[in-house]
Design brief:
Elements: H1 5-11, E1 23-27, E2 30-33, E3 38-41, H2 44-47, H3 56-66, H4 79-91, E4 96-100, H5 103-122, E5 128-132, H6 141-146, H7 150-153, E6 163-166, H8 171-177, E7 182-187, H9 201-213, E8 217-221, E9 245-248, E10 259-263, H10 265-268, H11 284-297, H12 300-324, E11 327-333, E12 336-341, H13 349-358, E13 361-362, E14 364-365, E15 370-373, H14 381-399
Parallel strand pairs: 3-13, 5-6, 5-7, 7-8, 8-9
Antiparallel strand pairs: 1-2, 2-3, 4-10, 9-10, 11-12, 12-15, 14-15
Organism: Psychrosphaera ytuae
Family: Belongs to the class-III pyridoxal-phosphate-dependent aminotransferase family. ArgD subfamily.
Protein name: Acetylornithine aminotransferase
Length: 401
């Protein structure tokens, strides 16, 4: 069978519009397509491939577990899931873990837990969930409604109720909405899809305080920011604010689908037997690979290296901006970096992505005005240099067009 981009249009549901490039092989931070053209990967599968492509530790874990046991129903537990859960609770605020297959499912579990806790402890009136405009929490109907981007949730009929949205980094807007009827406040400790927006210290500490004052749970969606992405194991660790519930996915599996909800024993007891579940969640293959990824990332060397690479990325982008004057702002934390286009290039982030791809470097967008970079956490310095040189050529082609 000949596999081409045209085959996508023939056989796939048209909710995506993928590039003409079809990658077939990857190693480290480099990828090769069907024509054997090489690309440097600054996208990382949208912050998923935290150790690049085909990292030996992950390949080894997959092969080893693949010859042992692949799947069990949750009528039984398994060793990789228990080992991974123990490492997660030992390394975080959490005491209990629930495994799912994706970030959306981890967030879904977090929201269901919050509602169940509020019903059990406070009664039927405490159902309100507050999240933030431009937030993104997944594509299930519950999570996409909690996410603050109506374009993703409109057009599917009646939405789940009692969900409202405040403005990120605006504590007053949250104060206007929160009350004793609020069961949870959900946010990303650095907004990803919304434009790579870090929280101010005043905002994030104020959110925690308002939750405490109103007996509301604080849920951190760390699907994109977690497992080393910001240079901390989880972003909350650099903010000095602990959530009550945390969702993790993406980098957790290093490319293998897995999600996790982390919480305390006191809250976890409200998800009693039968209240929630997942056929594949916590399966041995996913947990074995995730354990290898987690062990590799959760070291001082790798986490310090993320911060070192952040400085290089931002400096290179600043140098490009000095030459071509295309960015209004360069921001982010760790290797979750956003370059916001200035007024001359408003709405053209995808044009820059395409121009960079033509030069052999893969990047992302975060909305119409922000170019996003989420490379491997261990990307070699030489690949940053070469990738940025290619990205600059793409920028030059747009500016000089």
């Amino acid at each position: 069978m000949t596999v081409t981009r045209a085959l996508f249009d023939d056989v796939m549901v048209p909710n995506y519009s993928p590039a003409a490039v079809i990658p077939v092989r990857g190693e480290g931070s480099r990828v090769w397509d069907q024509e054997n053209k090489e690309y440097i990967d600054f996208a990382g599968g949208i912050a998923v491939n935290c150790l690049g492509h085909c990292h030996p530790a992950l390949v080894g874990a997959l092969k080893e577990q693949g010859e042992k046991i692949w799947h069990l129903s949750n009528v039984m537990t398994n060793e990789p899931a228990l080992r991974l859960a123990k490492k997660l609770v030992d390394s975080t605020f959490a005491e209990k873990v629930y495994f799912a297959n994706s970030g959306a499912e981890a967030n879904e579990a977090a929201l269901k837990l919050a509602r169940r806790w509020a019903l059990d402890v406070h009664g039927e009136q405490k159902t309100q969930i507050i999240s933030f405009k431009k937030g993104f929490h997944g594509r299930t109907f519950f999570t996409v409604t909690v996410g603050g981007q109506p374009a993703y949730s409109d057009g599917f009929g009646p939405k789940p109720g009692d969900i409202v949205h405040a403005e990120y980094n605006n504590l007053d807007s949250l104060k206007e909405l929160i009350s004793d009827k609020t069961c949870a406040v959900m946010l990303e400790p650095i907004q990803g899809e919304g434009g790579i927006v870090p929280p101010t210290k005043e905002f994030i500490e104020g959110v925690r305080q308002l939750c405490d004052e109103n007996n509301a749970l604080l849920i951190f969606d760390e699907v994109q920011s977690g497992v080393g992405r910001t240079g901390e194991l989880f972003a909350y660790m650099g903010l000095g604010v602990n959530p009550d519930i945390l969702a993790s996915a993406k980098a957790l599996g290093g490319g293998f689908p897995i999600g996790a909800m982390l919480t305390t024993t006191e809250l976890a007891k409200h998800l009693k037997i039968g209240t929630h579940g997942s056929t594949y969640g916590g399966n041995p293959l996913a947990c074995a690979v995730a354990e290898a990824a987690f062990d590799t990332v959760n070291t001082k060397e790798v986490l310090d290296g993320v911060k070192e690479r952040e400085a290089i990325f931002k400096n290179k982008l600043a140098e490009i901006n000095d030459k071509y004057d295309v960015f209004k702002d360069i921001r982010g934390q760790g290797l979750l970096v956003g370059a916001e286009l200035n007024d001359k290039y408003t709405g053209r982030a995808k044009d820059f992505l395409s121009a960079a791809l033509d030069q052999g470097v893969m990047s992302l967008v975060a909305g119409a005005n922000v170019i996003r970079f989420t490379p491997s956490l261990v990307i070699p310095m030489a690949d940053i240099e070469e990738g940025m040189a290619r990205f600059e050529k793409g920028v030059a082609n747009i500016v000089n067009a």
